[in-house]
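User: Can you recover a sequence for this backbone? Please restate the input before giving your answer.

Assistant: Of course. Working from this structure:
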């Protein structure tokens, strides 16, 4: 049976129970039941489900692994972590994250003024706030306000100019100065699609010369005591830990030498993010070649060794993992809206008294196809269709003949797949590209998985039900945007099989997993499909509750967001109705209907 690689990417968060995908916690509710309940309340279109217990699990994993590694390796420094807000700033995610991280003093990292304001308002007690990214004077002043409020904030400097501005503000304010971090430019290169953050030509950080200059500047302005942290980030989704190890070796040595240069309060190395997530659905496509345990052990061991050999105190370690924390908590559930070729039925045939010989042959293939000849007849049918299309182009057959060819070929495909379903599908694989079914999915890839569009990042996808039935259709997924990029093609080395279904009788839902990192805020309103409806799911031993439902914006709000004058739009529509020849009694009804449309979200309405 096809389990869609759930044991590879699922991390035991989701499992298959009988025919259904269930959440592997307490009462183990099925995703199908959850989505049906949400739809029973009237919600239509795709729905993003958030599972706060999965955020908590990732946070626990990180702290527990570093705790264990520290104990085992007898490491003296502390461990701290912050969540980089750019990975997901949505309030229902952040609130759950802050809640789950409270017991560890888990902090937040900000890269812009807006993110800094989220961090300042959401951080509890002494949880750390770090500020990366380019900063103007105003943003630095915000950092000073945070320090005045008593928060544990570190401003990480990306360049000498920023340091000069901090010195300037400190001179003006003569009040509490935030801690200062220096981002270091490593010569070790990052890897992968997100590699631009590491390396000597990277956008961020200070060279060795600039670091020494910074120490001098800090000394001169009596702020050296505030310099507590060095920071680097070599890129996201680091799949090979050797790149990180190289960076740590380099940073560890920089740390020790800065301490020796007189930076006596320097106590922390912040090693950024990059902890990778396994997105693969097949063993052969697996990317991540290390575990969290190995990651924690390597970091602690290397920093311990360097500190010992250079005779400095073991540094505190801070990490800024985002992807690892956020990805698993969000699952998008989207209904299939239409099957593009399943629709062909025998009833559609308009065979003539006398048909072109190739069509007679197709009809004969369809009638006499059976298990032992199915593959051969399928080949012949596809060949015939090609020849018939050429005949049409040359004017030898007409549109009715062409329609009959399409219908007959699809009937042959359907029958052949049915007859061959007990065979191993790889026998069919060499013609799967030709006989794939197009599943039109009621969601937008641009909105809900932009990294698939921009970076060809694969996200796990599987149906929520029928998992006790062998899926036989090789599937290409189309989203409902008018953009041909909104397509996940059936590919031989990344093949997706789905079930043959009758949408008139049943609904069929696909789950897209690991969407919690980066996808939501990078998502774009292409074709004006906006953020899907979201819901937070809490699970206990008795069952589950659906909370914090936020409906996908209504059409009128989407237009308002684009700065359309929506009153004007309504007025224009009413006026056109009034001036039209529509009979008077009907005009009001049409107006009412338009108003209902404007208040609904922009996704399609599937049956039920
Ligand atoms: C993006 C970013 C992160 C998060 O990286 P992940 O790969 O998501 O863990 C951490 N630190 C900085 C400075 C970043 O820019």
């Amino acid at each position: 049976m096809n389990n869609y690689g759930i044991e590879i990417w699922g991390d035991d968060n989701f499992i298959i129970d009988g025919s259904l995908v269930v959440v592997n916690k307490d009462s183990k509710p099925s995703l199908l039941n959850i989505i049906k309940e949400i739809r029973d309340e009237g919600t239509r279109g795709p729905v993003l489900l958030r599972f706060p217990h999965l955020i908590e699990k990732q946070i626990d994993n990180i702290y527990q692994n570093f705790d264990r590694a520290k104990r085992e390796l007898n490491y003296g420094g502390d461990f701290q972590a912050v969540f980089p807000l750019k990975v997901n700033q949505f309030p229902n995610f952040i609130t759950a994250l802050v809640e789950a991280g409270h017991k560890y003093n888990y902090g937040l990292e900000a890269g812009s003024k807006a993110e800094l304001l989220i961090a300042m308002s959401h951080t509890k007690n002494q949880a750390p706030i770090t500020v990366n990214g380019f900063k103007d004077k105003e943003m630095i002043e915000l950092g000073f306000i945070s320090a005045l409020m008593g928060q544990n904030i570190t401003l990480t400097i990306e360049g000498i100019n920023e340091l000069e501005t901090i010195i300037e503000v400190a001179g003006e304010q003569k009040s509490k100065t935030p801690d200062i971090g220096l981002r270091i430019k490593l010569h070790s290169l990052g890897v992968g699609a997100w590699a631009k953050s590491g390396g000597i030509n990277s956008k961020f950080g200070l060279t060795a010369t600039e670091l020494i200059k910074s120490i001098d500047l800090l000394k001169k302005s009596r702020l050296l005591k505030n310099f507590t942290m060095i920071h680097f980030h070599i890129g996201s989704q680091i799949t090979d830990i050797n790149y990180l190890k190289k960076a740590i070796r380099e940073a560890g040595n920089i740390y020790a030498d800065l301490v020796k240069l007189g930076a006596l309060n320097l106590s922390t190395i912040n090693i950024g993010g990059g902890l990778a997530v396994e997105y693969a659905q097949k063993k052969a496509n697996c990317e991540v070649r290390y575990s969290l345990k190995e990651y924690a052990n390597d970091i602690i061991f290397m920093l311990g060794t360097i500190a010992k050999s250079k005779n400095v105190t073991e540094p505190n370690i801070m990490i800024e993992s985002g992807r690892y924390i956020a990805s698993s908590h969000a699952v998008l559930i989207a209904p299939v809206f239409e099957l593009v070729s399943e629709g062909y039925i025998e009833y559609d045939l308009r065979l003539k008294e006398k048909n072109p010989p190739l069509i007679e042959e197709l009809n004969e293939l369809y009638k006499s196809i059976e298990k032992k000849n199915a593959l051969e007849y399928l080949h012949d049918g596809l060949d015939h269709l090609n020849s018939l299309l050429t005949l049409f182009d040359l004017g030898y057959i007409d549109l009715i003949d062409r329609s009959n060819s399409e219908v007959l070929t699809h009937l042959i495909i359907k029958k052949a797949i049915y007859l061959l379903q007990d065979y191993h599908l790889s026998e069919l694989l060499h013609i799967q590209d030709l006989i794939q079914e197009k599943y039109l999915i009621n969601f937008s890839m641009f909105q809900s998985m932009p990294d698939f569009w921009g970076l060809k990042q694969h996200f796990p996808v599987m149906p929520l039900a029928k998992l006790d039935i062998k899926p036989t259709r090789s599937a290409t997924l189309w989203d409902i945007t008018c953009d041909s990029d909104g397509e996940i093609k059936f590919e031989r080395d990344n093949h997706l099989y789905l079930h043959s279904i009758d949408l008139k009788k049943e609904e069929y839902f696909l789950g897209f997993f690991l969407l919690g990192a980066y996808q939501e805020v990078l998502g774009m309103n292409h074709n004006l499909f906006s953020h899907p409806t979201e819901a937070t799911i809490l699970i206990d031993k008795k069952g589950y509750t659906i909370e914090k439902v936020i409906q996908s914006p209504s059409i009128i709000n989407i237009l308002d967001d684009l700065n359309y004058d929506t009153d004007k739009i309504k007025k224009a529509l009413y006026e056109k109705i009034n001036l039209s020849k529509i009979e008077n009694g009907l005009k009001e009804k049409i107006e009412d209907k338009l108003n209902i449309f404007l208040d609904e979200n922009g996704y399609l309405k599937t049956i039920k």
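That completes the design. The radius of gyration is 30 Å.
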